[in-house]
Write a structure and sequence with these properties.
globular, 3-stranded mixed β-sheet, 3 domains, mainly alpha, disordered N terminus, 20 helices
Length: 520
């Protein structure tokens, strides 16, 4: 499929991709794709680009890098890149941290927009199902990538210019460039795309789409974006129509490409472990062992000091449940709906050192995500649990829309929070739990001692708002929402004096070639 995809991409009329092709030949080949019989091929190409997870490609790599840029994951825990305490912050320019995702992200967005444009040029269809499929996927991923750009990127280091650059099909054809657009402007453009997607259907057996729930997928993305826009009325409206509990929209992966979460932050064979789970996720599990099991890679012979935090104990031989190389390492667990599945690893070169202390901020044992346990694990983009969190936040918002109060309907908010907790076999929370909530080691605080640096102006959000933030933090882990959540709640984990970026910078490649974008 990807071999065909590469050929297909050459036909597209972006200067960078076709500069070595004869203009007349390119034009003829490009026009040949303006045929309804070619649209399924183009949709397959789009999904191939989205699902690719090789180095610096595909939507998973964008999300993985952003999880590292936010406070969901951390470096140096397991001995890799130990000198890069501010690894994600050092990379933007001298090591191109953001460069490698910017181009593939815009490439995929361009392909989605190109499908929509071709449908318009084709006009009359003999098979309307082809048109429906093409427009649903084109509009849906056109919206997804606009929302991702809005939530993850920005122009200047001072934190005042979140947003990105969209160069449209028409601008490409005219040899022009797009201009910088704010996060809110891009969110509005994403909503426009999603609104159009609701008019169409991808058909039966659409890859990654729960059967009969294609509208719910789109409503879910709209709920996410409206929440970020501060439009709680529309966020609730669309969350009510979003994916139900237990359903999720996935990107089906090709085993031809490594998974970044699996290989660089999980069980992959490279054992690079570039990014590990932030320590607070270990703390969440230790505080309530129903949140998830910790499966260990430590052996009984190695672990003479008994450092393992696994309740199940040391794992079996190859092929047995839980073993590092087993296809279903979490098989046999009592709770098959864990919210925070973790894997335990020795820190490189510190196996059973006598002075190292396991646990939060320890230095001999670290913890990896174990959501994505294999090379082919499907990537979850959005699910019904997130909709419950959106509804909980909308309920807590007062009528004046203040982002600080969160003094609305606590009873309804807890109903939605507890819907998620029940799904994960966790005990329900009470109004008293919400009122009393105060945890400076949680995702609702920048007082955490496990941050890379002591925060100069620490924040600790308590009460119902703090509880909501932490429940969302646990529920939406590695779903691509934490970065923007941190910023909208004032929980950025780096110094806010201008020393560090608040978002991934629009890379130099865009700044240099685009006369409409200036970082100064």
């Amino acid at each position: 499929m990807l071999g065909l995809l590469i050929i297909g991409l050459v036909f597209l009329s972006c200067d960078d991709w076709v500069q070595d092709v004869d203009p007349l030949t390119d034009s003829l080949l490009n026009e040949a794709l303006d045929d309804e019989k070619q649209l399924d091929f183009l949709v397959t190409g789009l999904l191939g680009v989205v699902s690719e997870a090789g180095e610096d490609n595909g939507i998973e790599n964008v999300m993985w890098k952003n999880a590292l840029f936010s406070d969901e994951m951390t470096t140096r825990v397991l001995g890799h890149a130990p000198d890069h305490i501010t690894w994600a912050q050092i990379w933007p320019f001298n090591l191109q941290f953001s460069e490698y995702e910017w181009e593939p992200m815009n490439h995929a967005r361009f392909l989605a927009d190109d499908i929509v444009a071709r449908v318009g040029r084709i006009g009359t269809f003999t098979d309307n199902d082809i048109k429906e499929r093409a427009l649903w996927w084109g509009y849906t991923f056109g919206g997804v990538y606009r929302a991702m750009m809005a939530s993850m990127y920005g122009l200047t280091k001072d934190g005042t210019t979140p947003g990105g650059v969209i160069t449209t099909i028409e601008q490409v054809e005219a040899g022009e460039f797009g201009s910088f657009q704010s996060d809110q402007a891009l969110f509005a453009l994403a909503i426009d795309r999603f609104t159009e997607a609701l008019k169409y259907s991808p058909g039966d057996n659409a890859p990654g789409v729960p059967s009969g729930l294609h509208d719910e997928v789109v409503h879910s993305f709209m709920a996410r974006v409206y929440l970020w826009m501060g439009d709680y009325t529309n966020a609730k409206t669309h969350a009510d129509q979003g994916l139900p509990m237990g359903e999720q929209f996935e990107i089906l992966k090709s085993t031809s490409f490594e998974s970044k979460y699996w290989d660089d932050s999980g069980r992959g064979p490279s054992h690079r472990h570039i990014a590990s789970a932030d320590w607070r996720f270990f703390d969440y599990v230790i505080a309530d062992r129903s949140e998830g099991e910790i499966i260990t890679s430590l052996t009984e012979d190695e672990d003479t000091n008994g450092y393992t935090a696994s309740l199940r104990g040391y794992e079996g031989e190859p092929g047995e449940a839980g073993n590092y190389g087993t296809d279903d390492p979490r098989g046999g667990l009592t709770n098959q709906n864990e919210r925070i599945p973790l894997m335990e690893e020795w820190v490189m070169n510190l196996i059973n050192e006598p002075d190292c202390q396991p646990g939060s901020n320890g230095d001999c044992v670290g913890y990896q995500q174990d959501i994505y346990v294999s090379r082919s694990s499907s990537l979850i983009l959005i699910d019904g649990r997130e909709m419950e969190m959106v509804l909980a936040e909308c309920a807590l918002q007062p009528s004046d829309g203040s982002s600080d109060s969160y003094a609305g309907d606590l009873t309804t908010a807890l109903t939605h929070i507890n819907n998620v907790r029940t799904f994960h076999s966790l005990t329900e929370l009470t109004a008293q739990d919400a009122t009393d909530y105060d945890n400076p080691a949680s995702g609702a605080s920048t007082q955490r001692t496990t941050l890379s640096e002591t925060h100069p102006d620490p924040v600790n959000i308590t009460g119902p708002k703090g509880l909501l933030i932490v429940e969302r933090d646990k529920t939406c882990w590695l779903r691509g929402v934490r970065h923007y959540d941190q910023r909208r709640w004032g929980l950025w984990h780096w110094n806010t004096d201008g020393s560090y970026w608040h978002y991934q910078p629009i890379p130099d490649s865009e700044i240099i070639q685009n006369p409409n974008v200036d970082r100064n």
